[in-house]
Amino acid sequence: MSGATPPRTPARDAPPSSTTCVHAGERPDPATGAIDAPVHLSSAFAFDDAEQAAGAFRGENDHLIYGRWRNPTVSALEAKVAALEAGEDACATASGMAAISAALLTLCEAGDHVVAPRSIYGESARLMRERLPRLGITTTFVDQTDPEAYARAIQAPDASNAAGGRTRLLYVESPANPTLALTDVRAIAALARARGLLVVADNTFATPFGQRPLALGADLVVHSMTKQLGGHGDAIGGVVIGGRELVAQVREAALKSFGGILSPLAAMLISRGMRTFALRARQSNQTAQALADALGAHAAVARVHYPGHPSHPQHALARAQMSAFGALVAFELRGGLDAGKRVLERVRLVTHAVSLGDVRSLITHPASTTHSSMPPEARLAGGVSDGLLRVACGIEETEDVVADLLQAIGA
Ligand SMILES: Cc1ncc(COP(=O)(O)O)c(C=O)c1O
Q1: In whole angstroms, what is the distance from residue 57 CA to residue 149 CA?
Q2: Looking at residue 1, what is its pLDDT?
Q3: pLDDT at 295 over 60
Q4: Residues 195, 181 within the same domain
């Protein structure tokens, strides 16, 4: 990086600094010196001669070939997000779901089995419950707060295994969408190592500001970059991060063949958002803590779900594995669904919309929206009750967000 001091490589277990967020993956454009590198919208890249082209296809030189394989704007984003999660490499995808399906389809084949949390983002549950079984990949959903439940669900391909699958990976989403239930990532990683399995962790809710699953022993981290990494609600994207070899496998199989790549325009927007990620995370995490404290003390609130609140049943685990408790708060009102609907209608500053990790604070009712594709019994077993509301704190002033929700809840 000419004219600039390269950022220190962040410690694997330390949250990314603003210096890393601004500088990682960036350098002035070698052709023009532009400090903000141009966006490369080209789908193909010209060769100097036939030998160079043939060598590029044989992997003997690193000349760019075609945008589905590699694009400089996307590569810069991949380098930045790999630095944020302290991974060796990263592979950007068209969405968070593209990242999750890329990881699972790369690592698993017909006959393989996955152990996953029963409280989990609704579409991830649907992928594992409805789509992957058609390809011969089955999933057992377990109480993710109990590492023993993961251990009991592991299937070995021997005569005693009536289910017939062989467990290939343990899937983690901690904190979980939308219940904020936690999984002991170190314990699951130790279990996986002992049984020769892999761990894939969806770190969308915690973000690298709150938790670094690779340092806790996970093999791959997946993100919806649509959320807090991009941070502005203006681009959809995902990413798989981890060791060089596994990420190369994901890139080869899932991107080259399945084709779910991130466009350079979306990569530019997400990279720009990521430069302020640590600043935004500090503000949104502070607001979430203040909101959880206010809701926890409110007479109309039956229960608040926030890893940083002392009432969270896994508060001790949160303190042990998280460096910050996140920007999401869920709560249940004593008046149930009807009281919840009134809150959605009365908010003035907070926007009633799905998604999270935006600069704007958002509120949603998961049972009727993001988790409506789950069978009701699976949804309730996962803790997504009809009266649960989820707030994704943005970067507005803390007191404004808290005041708006308190006025919406009323006396
Ligand atoms: C935890 C989690 N993982 C993955 C996704 C999917 O991300 P995307 O919408 O970018 O596909 C979401 C979306 O809300 C999510 O909340």
Answers
A1: 46
A2: 38
A3: yes
A4: yes
- pTM equals 0.95
Domain membership flag for residue 391: yes
Q: Measure 107 CA to ligand 1 centroid, in angstroms.
A: 20
Count of domains for the chain: 2
* Active-site residue list: 68, 121, 202, 227
Supply the range of the domain harboring residue 241.
72-274
Among 183, 226, 270, say which to mutate for ligand 1: greatest number of ligand atoms within 8 Å of CB: 226
Atom number in ligand 1 closest to CA 204: 1
Q: In what order do the strands lie in the sheet with 362-364?
A: 301-305, 328-333, 388-392, 362-364, 351-352
pLDDT score for 335: 87
Per-residue pLDDT reduced to its tens digit, 299-309: 999 999 999 99
Q: What is the pLDDT of residues 19-33, one digit of tens each?
A: 999 999 999 999 999
Q: What is the pLDDT of residues 374-399, one digit of tens each?
A: 788 888 887 888 889 999 999 999 99
Lowest mean pLDDT among 158-162, 195-199, 243-247: 158-162
Q: Ligand 1 centre from 332 Cα, in Å?
A: 22
**Could you give the angle at the alpha carbon of 45 between the alpha carbons of 40 and 47, nearest 5°?**
150
In a domain, 307, yes or no: yes
Per the CB < 8 A criterion, the answer to whether 340 and 333 are in contact is: yes
Q: Which of 206, 185, 182, 202 is nearest to 327 (CA)?
A: 206
Within its chain, how far is the Cα of 103 from the centroid? 13
Angle at 277 between CA 276 and CA 282, to 5 degrees: 105
Taking CA 361 as the corner, what is the angle to CA 358 and CA 362, rounded to the nearest 5 degrees? 90
Cis peptide before 38 (omega within 30 of 0): no
pLDDT for 379? 82
Mean pLDDT of 239-253: 96
Tell me the best of 204, 223, 358, 369 to mutate to test the pocket of ligand 1, counting ligand atoms within 8 Å of each CB and taking the most: 204
- Residue 390 located in a structural domain: yes
Residue 18 is assigned to a structural domain of this protein: no
The CATH number of residue 393's host domain is: 3.90.1150.10
Which token pair is 370?
């993001």
- Spatial neighbors of 187 by CB under 8 A, at least 6 apart, are 147
Task: Work out the mean pLDDT of the chain and round it to a whole number.
Answer: 93
Q: Which of 246, 274, 302 is the last residue of a domain?
A: 274
